[in-house]
Design brief:
The chain is 47% helix and 14% strand. Helix 9 links the parallel strand 9 and strand 10. The longest helix is centred in the first third of the chain and has 24 residues. The two termini are 24 Å apart.
């Protein structure tokens, strides 16, 4: 902490807030895993476990019914995890071995958490979800409130160790005016959902945050990643006023995306379902830059039929009848297992069979999905607007060629995600067979820096401002210029107004983000020229690290 009592961390959602701190409800104290019960309690303990897990799942599903987009996906996934047969079997076995239900839950979840931690990568991300389910079930077994969001009746700044995705998904932005966590990273569920809600958010503050008591007045600046303790009231009120003025300017921005000197930059929406697509269509989005199709698959025990898929895709396509829509084919595997395409244990699933790899190895799964997209395109009556389709995890020219041929056979425009460093390095060759590419900065950062993007200890490495990541983006954009191929960005980097200037300076043609993030990006781009963006990009890619790249860019653009 500095003399001014300011903490510096990673700001992931811009905005200024001044309010008292409120701490999230802590996790319940875990029971002794060695506790025992008498044999006559076995069946009643099993029943208690099943009832508690069912209550947790039902509660999460109910919350999902009132959510949309990524928030709904997170809640449904956690609800499903609460009823997972794997850890339930282990817990029942422990109860039959003499453990009470609370201890059996700990034993079971610890076993599966250890397995996921040892697997590393994206599988390790699921540990947070598992531990969240554990804590909720234990609370239910004890008749206590589930951990997570506190009961607050007035605007507050929510502090937490690291909110579970299910909690972040149900934040009320009218009461939670800012979000600050000890742990987390710029691409965590917390950051993504906070951005979707438009709540100022700072993550990875570290141990110093724990010293702030509930009720302490704080001034939070999400753009600069600062938390000021007991600030001067007049100064804080003025900072909030200025922040509100900027927010009002952003709210008035109506598009389309372009720089101050008229350079067009398509601003598109990331969506996961028809509801989010309709919301985006009512705002400033010029189309869809990333339609995640996973939800249709992950919630199903059997592969959805072509007709079922086509119906889900058709509803999104109809939301933008005259505009660009980019559909990403199934991005499953690793942390997103499919019940109908289980390839078994992988020692390192983050580098395993996921994305294009699982679709290609599962007997026509990719072909059937593309058939469904083609059927939806035909039925959507989009006045001739083309449907763009991109595959995740492409790493070779052979993969790109195979995918492009399948798309063209069905009258679809083929593209690829650039999220593996190999794809960036081969971008020129890939663009000889593809019609567009879109850079997924979340995974590109993770794989480039060899750092788990969910690790709070590595958040500084998985920051998309890392010069190494920016140089791969620069390489991809140069390939796009040489081959006249559109290059977009659909990772969380596209939602950062300052970084958006750098991306445009590197040569990115379109930016796709959560619909609520687009006005801030568009308003910022409208204040700078293309030449200023180019100069900022040059500064950023030649910086020594992410922090200095961000700081130098802000100074150069006067932001």
């Amino acid at each position: 902490m500095t003399a001014k009592h300011i903490l510096n961390a990673t700001g992931v959602v811009p905005g200024v807030a001044y309010a008292p701190a409120a701490w999230a409800r802590p996790r319940p104290e875990l029971p002794d895993p060695n506790s025992t019960i008498s044999g006559d309690r076995t069946e009643s303990e099993i029943e208690r476990l099943q009832v508690a897990a069912g209550q947790v799942s039902d509660g999460l599903k109910e919350r999902a019914d009132h959510a949309t987009g990524h928030a709904a996906e997170v809640l449904l996934a956690t609800a499903k995890l609460a009823l997972d047969k794997g850890w339930h079997r282990t817990a029942v076995k422990a109860i039959r071995g003499g453990s009470p239900a609370e201890s059996a839950v700990v034993i079971a979840i610890d076993k599966f958490s250890d397995m996921l931690k040892s697997a590393g990568g994206l599988m390790a991300e699921r540990v947070t979800d598992l531990e969240d389910v554990r804590d909720r079930v234990i609370a239910r077994l004890r008749g206590e409130d589930e951990p997570g969001l506190p009961s607050i009746s007035s605007p507050s700044i929510l502090l937490a160790e690291d909110l579970a995705p299910a909690d972040t998904a149900t934040i009320n932005p009218e009461l939670v005016v800012a979000l600050v966590t000890v742990l987390g990273g710029p691409t965590s569920h917390t950051a993504i959902i906070a951005r979707q809600l438009g709540v100022p958010c700072i993550v990875a503050v570290g141990d110093a945050l724990r010293d702030i008591p509930a009720g302490e007045l704080l001034l939070v600046d999400g753009a600069h990643g600062t938390i000021e303790l007991h600030p001067d009231e007049d100064g804080a009120v003025e900072a909030v006023r200025i922040g509100k003025e900027l927010a009002e300017q952003v709210a008035k921005w109506e598009g389309p995306g372009r720089t101050a000197d008229g350079e067009a930059v398509q601003l598109l929406a990331n969506v996961g379902d028809a509801s989010t697509a309709r919301q985006a269509a009512g705002g400033v989005a010029e189309g869809v830059g990333l339609f995640r199709t996973e939800l249709s698959f992950l919630s199903s025990e059997l592969e959805p039929t072509i007709e079922q898929q086509a119906k889900a895709y058709d509803e999104v396509l109809k939301s933008f009848p005259n505009s660009k829509v980019v559909i990403r084919t199934l991005d499953a595997g690793s942390d997103k297992p499919l019940a109908f395409a289980d390839l078994g244990h992988e020692d390192n699933p983050a580098l395993g069979v996921r994305g294009l790899r699982i679709s290609r190895s599962s007997g026509g799964l990719m072909e059937r999905q593309l058939d469904a997209v083609a059927q939806a395109q035909s039925e959507a009556n989009r006045d001739g607007a083309k449907t763009w389709v991109m595959a995740p995890m492409i790493a070779t020219l052979e993969e790109a060629t195979w995918f492009a041929e399948l798309c063209r056979e069905r009258g679809l425009t083929p593209g690829a995600m650039i999220e593996v460093p190999a794809a960036a390095l081969l971008s020129h060759e890939l663009m000889t067979v593809l019609d567009f590419v879109s850079i997924g900065t979340n995974d590109l950062s993770q794989y480039t820096m060899a750092a788990d993007r969910m690790s709070p200890h590595l958040a500084h490495l998985t920051d998309p401002w890392q010069p190494a990541v920016l140089r791969l983006i620069d390489m991809t954009c140069r390939s796009g210029e040489l081959t006249d191929t559109p290059v977009g960005v659909c990772g969380e980097a596209a939602a950062d107004p300052l970084l958006a200037c750098v991306l445009v300076g590197l040569g990115v043609n379109s930016l796709s983000a959560a619909p609520t993030a687009l006005p801030a990006v568009g308003a910022q781009l409208a204040q700078v020229t293309k030449e200023q963006c180019r100069a900022a990009a040059e500064i950023a890619i030649n910086s020594v690290d992410a922090a200095s790249a961000r700081e130098a860019t802000a100074e150069a653009l006067g932001i």
